[in-house]
Every structure is written in structure tokens, then in C-alpha cells.
């Protein structure tokens, strides 16, 4: 994947669903991971590690703490991918 290419939302959805151990269909762009799925800080860090490995980017703990939706994750990853390509 290049920094210019959009993220594959289906692939991202499945990665998130695998880590959170939920059905991929339940991961919509607007669902709030904390409020709606009960994601805690430990699970958020597990998600960050999975995303780092898959997309080959570095996600700081404070950055993943600000992420609450799939849309937030997409935006964070796109920023990271652009930065790493520069």
C-alpha cells in the first residue's frame, strides 16, 4: 500500500473485528469502540500493535487513546502512512 492509496476499509474492518473479537458487520465507521463495544486501554493497545504490524507504522499510546471509531483509525493511519512516505 502506498501513502497515496486509500485504506481498504474491508481489510481494516476485519483487522479491528479480529482484535476486538466481534463480528466484522458490527464495525461501522461511526460505532464508538469504548461506549458501544467496551474497549479498554489494554485492548486499545493490542489494536495499536496489530495496526502497527500490518501497516508498518508507529502508533504512540496517546494517539490510540484518542481513537474511538473506525473513521478515527482510518484518519490516523492515513496520517501515519503519509508521514512515513515523506
TrEMBL record:
The keyword Phosphoprotein applies. InterPro entries: ACP-like_sf, PP-bd_ACP, Ppantetheine_attach_site. Residues 6-81 form the Carrier domain. The lineage of its organism: Bacteria, Bacillati, Actinomycetota, Actinomycetes, Kitasatosporales. This is Acyl carrier protein. It holds the Pfam family PP-binding. Coiled coil: none annotated. SUPFAM superfamilies: ACP-like.
Amino acid at each position: 500500500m502506498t501513502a497515496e492509496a486509500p485504506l481498504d476499509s474491508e481489510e481494516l474492518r476485519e483487522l479491528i473485528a479480529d482484535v476486538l473479537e466481534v463480528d466484522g458487520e458490527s464495525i461501522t465507521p461511526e460505532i464508538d469502540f469504548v461506549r458501544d463495544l467496551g474497549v479498554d486501554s489494554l485492548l486499545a493497545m493490542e489494536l495499536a500493535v496489530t495496526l502497527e504490524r500490518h501497516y508498518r507504522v508507529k502508533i504512540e499510546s496517546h494517539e490510540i487513546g484518542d481513537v474511538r471509531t473506525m473513521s478515527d483509525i482510518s484518519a490516523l493511519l492515513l496520517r501515519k502512512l503519509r508521514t512515513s512516505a515523506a
